[in-house]
Amino acid sequence: MHELSIATAIVEQAGEIARADGAGGVSSVTVRVGELAGVVPDALHFAFEVARDGTALAAARLVVEQVPGRAWCGECAEEFAVGMPPFFWCPRCDRPSRELRSGRELEITGVQS
Length: 113
Ligand SMILES: [Zn+2]
Fold this sequence. Notes:
Radius of gyration: 17 Å
Mean pLDDT: 94
Strand content: 25-35%
Binding site for Zn(2+): 73, 76, 90, 93
Strand order of the largest sheet: 2-1-6
Low-confidence stretches: none
Largest sheet: 3 strands, mixed
Order of helices and strands: HEHEEEEE
InterPro entries: Hydgase_Ni_incorp_HypA/HybF_CS, HypA/HybF
CATH topology of the domain at 3-68 and 102-112: hypothetical protein PF0899 fold
Helix content: 25-40%
Shape: elongated
Protein name: Hydrogenase maturation factor HypA
CATH architecture of the domain at 3-68 and 102-112: 2-Layer Sandwich
Function: Involved in the maturation of [NiFe] hydrogenases. Required for nickel insertion into the metal center of the hydrogenase.
Bound molecules: zinc ion
GO molecular function: nickel cation binding; zinc ion binding
Distance between the termini: 28 Å
CATH class of the domain at 3-68 and 102-112: Alpha Beta
């Protein structure tokens, strides 16, 4: 379960951000997770509960903002949803496009003390 290593990294990074801000504890952490990032939100929530144990984030809540996978078609200047599993084919001009605009995010966007 690679969500556990991701959750551990989130706990470590959020802890560092809180320390740099001089915060004693963390009440919640917000992360952006792309549809194509290969992370299952439910598994991430579960892993976070394991990873936060005994840290400054022991009482913290994990907020997951999901980002849909979207690609760009240069032929007709159209952005389209690739879905899951991703299908990189422009629905407008019927051509393949692999120019991904969003969906691979995996980042901390907020740490609340
Ligand atoms: Zn197109």
